[in-house]
Structure formats: C-alpha cells, structure tokens
TrEMBL record:
Family membership noted in the UniProt record: Belongs to the ABC-4 integral membrane protein family.
Cellular component aspect of the GO annotation: plasma membrane
Membrane topology reported for the UniProt record: Multi-pass membrane protein
Domain ABC3 transporter permease C-terminal: 309-435
Transmembrane segments: 298-323, 360-388, 408-426
Name the UniProt record assigns to this protein: Acetoin utilization transport system permease protein
Annotated coiled-coil segments of the chain: none
InterPro entries: ABC3_permease_C (IPR003838), MacB_PCD (IPR025857), Macrolide_Exporter_MacB (IPR050250)
GO MF terms, alphabetically ordered: transmembrane transporter activity
Localization per Swiss-Prot or TrEMBL: Cell membrane
Amino acid sequence: MKWKDQFRFIRQNIKKNKVRTMMTILATAMGCAFLIVLASVGYGLQESVVKDTLEQQVVTEIDIYGFEEEGEYRSLTMDDIDYLESIDGVKAVTRRNQVRQIPMYMLEEYKAEAMTYVTHFPSEVEAGLKLQDGRMPEKENEVIVGSHFRNYLSVNTDDENIYDEETGEVKEEYIYPDDLVGKTINMEVRQDLEGENGTHTISLTVVGVLQEPSREWMQDQNVYISESVYNEIEEFTGTPGGELGIDPGNLETDTTDTFDEVHVYAKNLEKVQGIADKLEENNYAIYSVVNEMEQINMLFTIAKAGLILVGTIAIVIASIGIYNTMTMAVTERAPDIGIMKAIGANPKTIKQIFVLESSYIGIIGAIIGTIVAYLISVLVNIGLPFIIEMAFEDELPEGLQFSAIPPSLVFIAVGICLFVTILSGMRPAKRATQIDVLKAMRREI
C-alpha cells in the first residue's frame, strides 16, 4: 500500500469520528501546553536572574583576593601585576588601595565624608572606566568623584529636616547646587597624637565625575586620588594608608607596592574561564561571575528538568485517551482490516497505518498546545506582575520575567508528546495485525 493510500485511509477514519478524535487532540494539546508553560517558568526566571547578575557585575572581570604562599595568603605586589598583565587574553589589570580612614571633604560651606581610593587611572580606562562629565586626572592634585558624591555634599547643619523621610537622602535644597568639575575641594585627614587628633588639609581639584552604576540602587560616592596624595596622607599620619588607632611610626617602606584590590579584565567572555583556571593553578585566590553563572545555571537546569518531568505526566494522562481512541478505531475498522489482509496487505503496513494515525493526533495536539502555551506565556508576563503588585502591594524588580519559551523547550515538548502518542498507538496497532480475517469479515472480534 502506498503512503498516499495510507494517509487517505487515516483521514477517512478521522472524518468518520470527528468528535472523538478532536477530544483526543484537545487532551493532547492541553498536556503539551501544560508542559511548556510549566517549564517556561524555570526558563523565564533563569533569564531574569542571569540578566540581573550580568547587569550588576562585569562579566569579563576576575577579582583576585591574594596569593597563597605556604598556606597563607599575602597581598598582591607589582610583580604579581606584571605577571597578570602578561597572561594571554588579559585586557587590563586594575589595582586600588583604600585610605584607611574616611576623610572629610569641604567645598565652601558644604561638607561630605567619603571613602577614598588611590587607583591606577590608565589601567582603569583600559578596563572600561567611563566618565559622565569632565576628564581623567593628569596632575597629582587632580581627582575624580563618584556619580553620587554631590548628593552627599550638603550644608553642615544639625537640622534633621535636611533628610527626605521616604528616601533617607539629603534634600535637593541642601545639596551643593553647581557642577563639581573644575571646583577645588579640601580633603581633611586626621592623625592620632597621644589621644588627641590632629588634622591635615589637602587641596584637590575635581576634574571628572564617573558614570552612574548600571543598577539604580547602586551608589558611588567615592573619591579617587593619585598615588602622591596617598603618600602625603601616610607621611602625615605615619601609618599605612592613614590608618587610625595604631601608633604612628609603623609605616613600612614601599607600602604602595602592595594593593588592597586587584581586578583582571579579560578581552572577551570566552577568555574568562581560561584565565581563571590558570590563576587558580598558580595559587591565586579568585572570584569570577562565570563561577556564579555556572552555579545558577546548574540550579535552574535541575529545576527545569523537574518541571518538564511534572509536565510530562499531563501528556502521559492524555496518552490514555489516545490509547482508547486507537483501540476503538481497531474495533470499528475490523472489516476494513480483514479486507486488507484478504487481498494480501502486509501486517507491517496495517500496523504502520495505526501508528501513523496516533502520530497524526500527537502532532496536531503538539502544534495547538504550543500555540496556546505562547499565548498563556504572554498573558502571564503581562498579568501576573500586575496581580502580585495589587494583591501584595509590593513592586516587583524591573525586568522580571516569569515565563520564557525558547525553541529548545518547544522541541523538547513536541518530542515528548510525539514519543508518548506513538507509544500509545503501538499496542492497538499490534492488535490490528492479529485480527482473524474470517471473523473480521463476519464482524466478530
């Protein structure tokens, strides 16, 4: 029997039993849609979490916390920096030292305390540091400030009304009103002198303001100074990094040869893992966002597998309807099967016809289920955040996605659906090949 004749035979049977076949297709479509929608929650949340993580951190950045030497960790030195810069695939190596007290910054009657760092500006620029205003420092007394530094540079007053009750930030009318670029600010550092505090003022010129962080909730109010200013602070306090609470005179030589923060930036994402592996082999204590991505993806892979397994149960339940439909089809078409066998039809051909019919039901059900799943996914992403915000009066994170349906999920769902439906039709198809010709002709099964 030709393929064309087999499909004609299948279509005739479907037309003869439209209602029963459509109900079976509907059950299959519901099972497939349930599987896709359920698993899409795992895919959607994974995309949101991964996207949020990538936006918060530089994906090509590797943080280095120290070098393990004889079971102990030491700070990195210039020799380490030179080695790190020589590694294949490394774009830049930034290094910073933090002033170990919080200096006071003054501009006219406005004051603000801010964390202060000495940094190597050329490597920062090479790593991707960008300004929203001004330029990078070129002289020893030139500095750049974080994008939120001005928000904390306020009138020195004890009035609590300067703070906004909702945000806790200083009200705009108390903040320094002009641009900071080109302004001279005075940095005041302290010194411990036998229970008394001495102060030293250094005049600095603000030449640039850093670009705002990628996330709205992140704040950058830091001040970035040159190495010479850092050395001046150490000379005044007599302590490493200007640290308070320790006896002056503990200043070691070449303190700027070690670094508090070192970050390696790869040329692209593909280079990160190779660089990280090499650093770990050479006893560097590191952290990379790639490691976090691996852990997140592993957790979501397990979750998605579980959701797909639960969704598969719905398709298995739908397969019971397919089995019932195909069994009844074999019973009703017993005379037709008898005639085909009488004229010499191969049992394999008869079995193939019923397997094709169950596959036909599965494919149509999978197509309808996929379309319905996409519609439900859109409604979930639009409606669910609104419902949650109305019910719990809590604003969800921006960009949170509850459902996502990648092509791979569709292929998995359709594959499972087709496999289960074919499996459901195998037993009735085998039974069709075992029908006795004489009994079939007499309609006695």
